[in-house]
Write a structure and sequence with these properties.
Layout: E1 13-18, H1 22-35, H2 41-61, E2 67-74, E3 78-85, H3 96-99, H4 105-113, E4 116-122, E5 125-133
Antiparallel strand pairs: 1-2, 2-3, 3-5, 4-5
Length: 137
């Protein structure tokens, strides 16, 4: 795993975390340390929340083995973040929040706080990606 000291992102960076609850905080610390020169204030808190939701899902539903891979790439106006795990994935559907009384708010928050997001399956792995604006929309 990479160091958690603040540094400016100049290109794509990747870190791997074990599939365990403590990895949510570790991943958040890693990403915020890398993006601190690009994302500040309330946007930093929003980024922490979005990443926490996605990594929590990867830990909960990621197959229980392997590692969670997180990659971040700076673009001119936003960060592109990818969270990859060994889980089977899912099909996001409209109204999921309303039909799931014990949760379901996480992806609603992801939708509201990101430029856009999505999910892909490749090589038996699930990747959730999102684009996060440096400044509020």
């Amino acid at each position: 795993m990479s160091s958690t000291t603040a540094q400016s992102l100049t290109g794509r960076e990747t870190a791997w975390f074990p599939v365990e609850p403590g990895s949510v905080a570790a991943a958040r610390t890693w990403l915020l340390g890398r993006s601190s020169e690009l994302v500040a204030g309330q946007r930093s808190e929003d980024l922490a929340l979005v990443l926490s939701e996605i990594v929590t899902n990867a830990v909960r539903h990621g197959g229980g083995a392997g590692q969670v891979e997180i990659s971040v790439t700076p673009k001119p106006e936003f960060l592109c973040v990818q969270v990859t795990d060994d889980g089977p994935g899912f099909a996001p559907r409209p109204g999921a929040m309303a039909s799931e009384p014990s949760g379901g708010f996480g992806l609603f928050l992801v939708e509201r706080l990101t430029r856009r997001w999505g999910l892909t399956r490749e090589a038996q792995r699930t990747r959730v990606w999102f684009e996060f604006d440096y400044t509020p929309a």
